[in-house]
Design goal:
Layout lengths: L3 H4 L4 E4 L6 H11 L6 H8 L5 E7 L10 E11 L19 E10 L8 H14 L4 E9 L3 H9 L3 E12 L2 E11 L9 H29 L3 H9 L4 H10 L7
Parallel strand pairs: 4-5
Antiparallel strand pairs: 1-2, 2-3, 3-4, 5-7, 6-7
The structure holds coenzyme A.
The site of coenzyme A (COA) has 19 residues, from strand 4, helix 4, strand 5 and helix 5.
């Protein structure tokens, strides 16, 4: 595939995955993942049977390629009480209809990486999940050695809640997995003692910073205004420095 970053400015669009995507979808999965998925999985994706999905295409590619998948995400809605993250949710025993969105697969073909495509695809999933009134969270597993995906999910504010030993068994070898969760509308269970301590430490730190800033501000009032601006302007570019001196606008420009 031609490198879109070098050749042209891609025009990425997002659309539902349809039966015409079957072949390409299978090929990309085979290229990107160490696990082989059954044909039934792909048929369910393209026909929207129990699976929701979004595809990414590059409209600037020539001819029929302009509608060919270059990225995808697939997910399934599952009952919350049957899931392995049920213990982390704010559980209401009277509601058996609570659900989760489980991400099955996510991928972007190599030449289109680092363009924010996976970010947009995951945003589609979280937007979709937040529109479901019963949905508590979006979650997924990542194989422990997949550093790009781990960095990616952390950046997307997914929380790594567990390391699962020997979760995957691939070609005769066991691999650990991480469990990542994105809670919808703050639907999390109450904090663990460790989390409470962490939250309190963060709070204390913010309070300390606030007080320190206040003290600094009071000290600062004693300094003549012009000298304060002079000091801060040393962090500015030459052009901005000029603004300081010509307009005399003082601290505004910092
Ligand atoms: C993981 C993957 C989906 C990311 O797709 P992408 O479209 O390149 O991701 P984005 O451009 O939206 O990246 C967003 C952020 O993710 C992180 N990220 C993405 N690729 C990364 C890499 N190779 N190394 C480190 N961080 C990476 C970065 O923090 C990046 O933000 P930044 O560009 O501001 O630094 C893609 O690398 C892929 O398809 N990998 C193979 C399949 C796979 O592992 N799927 C996930 C299985 S759970």
């Amino acid at each position: 595939m031609v490198d879109p970053k070098a050749q042209h400015c891609p025009n990425i669009a997002y659309r539902p995955i349809t039966p015409s995507d079957l072949q390409v979808l299978e090929k990309i999965h085979a290229d990107l993942f160490p696990i082989r998925y059954e044909s039934e999985f792909f048929l369910n994706v393209v026909n929207g049977r129990d699976i929701v999905s979004w595809g990414a295409v590059d409209r600037s590619r020539p001819g029929s390629q302009s509608d060919e998948l270059i990225g995808f995400v697939t997910a399934r809605i599952i009952p919350a009480n049957e899931s392995e993250i049920a213990d982390t949710l704010r559980h209401d025993p009277s509601r058996i209809d609570q659900t989760l969105v489980y991400i099955l697969t996510l991928g972007v073909v190599e030449p289109y990486r680092n363009l924010g495509i996976a970010t947009s695809l995951i945003r589609e999933v979280t937007k979709y999940a937040s529109r479901i009134p019963t949905c508590q969270a979006v979650y997924l597993h990542v194989i422990a050695y997949n550093d790009p995906a781990i960095t990616f999910y952390k950046k997307m504010l997914f929380k790594c809640i567990r390391r699962l030993s020997n979760f995957y068994y691939i070609q005769g070898q066991h691999y650990d997995a991480y469990l990542f969760v994105y809670y919808i509308n703050g639907r999390r269970s109450s904090c663990s003692p460790l989390e409470l301590v962490t939250a309190m430490t963060t709070c204390m730190r913010s309070l300390f910073k606030f007080l320190a800033a206040k003290i600094w501000k009071n000290e600062d009032k004693k300094i003549p205004k012009w000298s304060k601006c002079k000091e801060s302007s040393c962090f500015l570019s030459k052009q901005k420095k000029r603004v300081v001196t010509t307009e005399g606008a003082g601290c505004q420009c910092v």
